Amino acid sequence: MIRCLLVDDEPWALELMASYVSKLPELELVAACDKPLEALSLATPEKTDLIFLDIQMPELDGLQFMRAINNKCRVVITSAYSEYAIHGFEHNVVDYLLKPVAFERFCKAVQKVVELFAPTLPSPVANHIFIKTDQKLVKVRFDEILFLEGARDYVIIHTDKDKVVTLDSLRNLEEILPASLFVRSHKSYITAIDKIDAIERNRIVIGDHYLPIGESHKSAFMTSLNRSRNS
After folding, report:
1. How many other C-beta atoms are found inside a 10 Å radius of the C-beta of residue 156?
2. Quick one: DSSP state of residue 68?
3. Which of 54, 92, 179, 198 has CB 3.0 to 4.6 Å from 205, enough for a Cys bridge?
């Protein structure tokens, strides 16, 4: 787990970034701080690995914050102003995200961090995901998932025990789920590869469930299936 600290004086920005962190199983939220001076005590290698840091803040701005921690933690800048990018990279920041930060762009920044930490990350890798549903986060193990079904405003995660409904999109979840275990088989479905019982007449059989294979996804789906069979 990569321990994350969020530092931003805007509550809406902290709430958005905290929701993003909760969606990625490789991230753990240490704290979301709206006062940079208070956040300094958490910006140490013993407590934090990665800081998502705003630039324009009262009392202590992001550039001053980075000088204070002196490269003790990795930093991803989150700012509404692109003109600070050069200053950020002078401090060896991992990435520079422009507000409002899209989840897809957030995931790309996290991937850069994961690659930097890869030699020191514990093994095995995460085997689960936390799904936000109602007012709580539900832990769902990868090996329990049969398939994901996308609707207009939500996704139904079908497991071998029950169903979990979340206000998310298939696109976001596709970014998070490991490609070695899951494949997009249709615009409305993501399938767990090892749960497939059979493929017949352009549809997937998983127990009593029959899922269509979309024409636009058929080639990539079969490639993933063959890769899994040969691994």
Report:
1. 13
2. H
3. 198
Cα separation of the two ends of the chain = 27
pLDDT at 210: 95
Q: How far is CA 4 from the centre of its chain?
A: 12
pTM: 0.53
Which pLDDT band holds residue 123 (cuts at 50, 70, 90)?
very low
pLDDT per residue as tens digits for the range 37-80:
999 999 999 999 999 999 999 889 988 999 999 889 999 999 88
Residue written as token pair 């992001």? 62
Q: Please list the residues that pair with 150 across neighbouring strands.
A: 155
Looking up tokens 């059979």 gives: 198
Helical (H) or strand (E) element with 99: none
Domains (range + CATH), the chain: 2-120 (3.40.50.2300), 128-230 (2.40.50.1020)
Q: 153: exposed, middle or buried (C-beta count within 10 Å: 0-12, 13-18, 19+)? A: exposed
How does pLDDT run across 150-172, given as a tens digit for each residue? 987 899 999 998 999 998 888 88
